[in-house]
Write a structure and sequence with these properties.
126 residues; mainly alpha
Length: 126
Amino acid sequence: MRGPAVTPLMQAEQAVLGSVFLDPGQLDQLSPWLRPDHFYRPIHAALYAAMLKLHADGHPATAAESGEPIPLSWVTDTVREAGTRARGLNASYAHSLISACPRPTHAPVYGRMVLEGAAIHRSVTQ
């Protein structure tokens, strides 16, 4: 059985999540306007919701200064939290998202692509 087709929207979702895994500080720029329900794939929405929750709870990774190493617990805690919302998620998938991110500093650009993709899907549905 084959997985879902890799579309530009899927690539944007993967890139924005990979960006936040690599640099949790990107949430400060994304959280005011990008919501979990903007993500097309439920597993991506669950991961983003988990990132937002951990950020709100003050996870140490979200307080790290730019250039400081990100604790591995950021990935494992995010996957564990997201697992309460989506089944079949594992650390291996999270690491594939990290490798799908071309440039972590471009998280707002990837986020805008996700937002535009959500708007297009809503328009088609209506």
